[in-house]
């Protein structure tokens, strides 16, 4: 499904069509084939960055795109590693080659500057959660053991951050919780923090922002509900911890102990035009109460994922991420 087709379908009228899927009468879905162009070196259509694709796990059709600022290629500089998990509600037919992500990669990589490793992962409902979490944890072990000369030469493995947008923000959060418990196994890769960009969280009880924006043109409630129905383990509701992090936060007093011991930081980015803004504020407040180092960047206006469509908002976001990574 192209970006143009996705944007032309009103999700309030045709929620499945807006996701690029067809719901069959037996409950299964049909989706178009996702084209997977692959080459060792990507033709460079942005002179500011060099991009390269690498296979992570061919059995799962997992791969990653490495994005490196051109200006460091003739130097001895080592840059922070930002591992990026894209969005799509766990179900959308997006991947690391989706055109709308290219400007995002380049802007963030150049502004920080940093090396971006954008990871592809399996989709629901063919592979329900926690498959996406499993794949993204696997990607960190792949980076740790990489034989790629570019990553080894220019990547500072001691400064790694997990960045995710929407469902990718949810992934960054849950993968962070997992790997904080086994950080020694990832060395020399050392994670320093999480960046949750418009993170896709939910819950059975509706928030005020969800009700205020119930028929939002980007992420209306009916689409959120469908994505959770297709993404969560069969038989689960929206108060499953994968969807509603507050359930686990309230029930596990020691949930963030390893993050605090390792001095991790968490950056939460959102805007008040996003139906998910109240979820972000709720998680942010609880993280602070638990003693986690948290930074927030909340803006007026906007909409879910607005940085992908507004160059100025993207530049502003990249500068916020730069300050966080470089602090």
UniProtKB/TrEMBL annotation:
Pfam families the UniProt entry points to: Abhydrolase_3
GO molecular function, one term: hydrolase activity
Sequence ranges assigned to domain Alpha/beta hydrolase fold-3 in this UniProt record: 82-306
Highest taxon in the source lineage: Eukaryota
UniProt similarity note: Belongs to the 'GDXG' lipolytic enzyme family.
UniProt name for this protein: Alpha/beta hydrolase fold-3 domain-containing protein
């Amino acid at each position: 499904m192209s970006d143009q087709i996705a944007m032309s379908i009103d999700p309030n009228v045709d929620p499945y069509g807006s996701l690029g899927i067809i719901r069959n009468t037996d409950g299964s879905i049909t989706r178009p084939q996702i084209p997977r162009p692959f080459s060792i070196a990507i033709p460079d259509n942005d002179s500011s960055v060099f991009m390269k694709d690498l296979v992570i796990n061919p059995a799962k059709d997992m791969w990653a795109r490495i994005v490196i600022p051109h200006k460091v290629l003739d130097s001895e500089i080592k840059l922070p590693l930002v591992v990026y998990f894209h969005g799509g509600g766990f179900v959308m037919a997006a991947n690391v080659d989706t055109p709308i992500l290219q400007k995002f990669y380049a802007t963030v990589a150049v502004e920080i500057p940093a090396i971006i490793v954008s990871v592809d992962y399996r989709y629901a409902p063919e592979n329900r959660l926690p498959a996406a979490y499993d794949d993204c944890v696997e990607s960190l072990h792949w980076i740790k053991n990489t034989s790629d000369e570019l990553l080894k030469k220019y990547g500072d493995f001691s400064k790694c951050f997990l960045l995710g947008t929407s469902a990718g923000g949810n992934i960054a959060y849950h993968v962070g919780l997992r790997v904080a418990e086994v950080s020694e196994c990832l060395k020399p890769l050392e994670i320093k923090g999480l960046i949750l960009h418009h993170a896709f969280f939910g819950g059975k009880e509706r928030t005020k922002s969800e009700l205020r924006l119930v028929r939002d043109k980007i992420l209306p409630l009916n689409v959120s509900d469908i994505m959770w129905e297709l993404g969560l383990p069969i038989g689960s509701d929206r108060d499953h911890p994968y969807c509603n992090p507050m359930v686990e936060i309230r029930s596990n007093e020691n949930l963030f102990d390893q993050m605090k011991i390792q001095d991790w930081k968490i950056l939460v980015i959102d805007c008040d035009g996003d139906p998910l803004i109240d979820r972000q504020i709720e998680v942010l407040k609880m993280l602070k109460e638990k003693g986690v180092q948290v930074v927030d960047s909340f803006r007026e206006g906007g909409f879910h994922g607005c940085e992908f469509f507004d160059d100025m908002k993207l530049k502003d976001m990249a500068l916020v991420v730069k300050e966080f990574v470089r602090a």
